[in-house]
């Protein structure tokens, strides 16, 4: 069973609404409650390849809806509970939502292997911070000097971090502060919608 958490204003504060708390407590998984439509790619010989439909539980559907509506979410679960399946669906839905601005979605992970598995980059690479050992203020200055990294921070609307438990707590706090500094916003990560999974 997955454990969802969401916050409209970001992480680091206790702003989860009582409605969301009640909703997440009352959700019981149902194995085939929603089918997500999958595209049918065409092979080079002109024939279509069948892609199996993805079935999401009620709990997964709730998390997907929160992400689609712009809420920041964190979800976790044991091995085999469908975290990666849900992540692929979240990415697919958000890519469709931001089809005109594909750089609005930053898909990252704590390690290179995890990043490759989801078609993303490491969080360090996205952030443009190298090893990230400096203070948040120094890192923000470093990022400002890197036009590509600075532009990524400003254009990103959704930041996805897979294997977030592998991100050091100090680094996590620095990233949240870098976002605030670069985007000139009070919210964690500068108001970027975040999706974290573990």
Automatic annotation (TrEMBL):
Question: What is catalyzed by this enzyme?
Answer: ATP + H2O = ADP + phosphate + H(+)
Region (Disordered) residue spans: 1-46
Q: Does the keyword Ribonucleoprotein apply?
A: no
Task: Tell me which EC number(s) this protein carries.
Answer: 5.6.2.3
**Boundaries of each DNA helicase Pif1-like DEAD-box helicase domain copy?**
56-196
Coiled-coil ranges per UniProt: none
Q: What is the name of this protein? A: ATP-dependent DNA helicase
Could you cite one Gene Ontology molecular function of this protein? ATP hydrolysis activity
Q: One matching Pfam family, short form?
A: PIF1
- InterPro entries on file: DNA_helicase_pif1-like_DEAD, P-loop_NTPase, PIF1_helicase
What is any one GO biological process for this UniProt entry? Answer: DNA recombination
Question: What are the alphabetically sorted keywords of the record?
Answer: ATP-binding, DNA damage, DNA recombination, DNA repair, Helicase, Hydrolase, Nucleotide-binding
Locate the compositionally biased regions of type Low complexity.
Answer: 29-44
- SUPFAM superfamilies registered for this protein in UniProt: P-loop containing nucleoside triphosphate hydrolases
The family this protein is said to belong to? Belongs to the helicase family.
Cofactors that this protein relies on: Mg(2+)
Enzyme kind, highest EC tier: isomerase
Source organism per UniProt: Coprinellus micaceus
């Amino acid at each position: 069973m997955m454990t969802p958490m969401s916050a409209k204003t970001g992480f680091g504060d206790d702003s989860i609404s009582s409605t969301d708390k009640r909703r997440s407590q009352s959700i019981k998984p149902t194995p085939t409650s929603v089918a997500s439509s999958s595209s049918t790619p065409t092979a080079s010989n002109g024939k279509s390849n069948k892609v199996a439909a993805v079935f999401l539980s009620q709990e997964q559907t709730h998390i997907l809806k929160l992400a689609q509506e712009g809420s920041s979410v964190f979800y976790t679960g044991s091995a085999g509970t469908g975290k990666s399946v849900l992540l692929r669906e979240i990415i697919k839905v958000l890519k469709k939502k931001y089809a005109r601005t594909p750089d609005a979605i930053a898909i990252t992970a704590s390690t290179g292997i995890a990043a490759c598995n989801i078609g993303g980059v490491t969080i360090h690479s996205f952030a443009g911070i190298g090893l990230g050992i400096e203070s948040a203020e120094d890192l923000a200055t470093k990022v400002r000097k890197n036009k590509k990294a600075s532009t990524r921070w400003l254009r990103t609307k959704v930041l996805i971090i897979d294997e977030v438990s592998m991100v050091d707590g100090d680094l996590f706090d620095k990233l949240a502060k870098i976002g605030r500094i670069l985007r000139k916003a009070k919210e964690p990560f500068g108001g970027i919608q975040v999706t974290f999974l573990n």
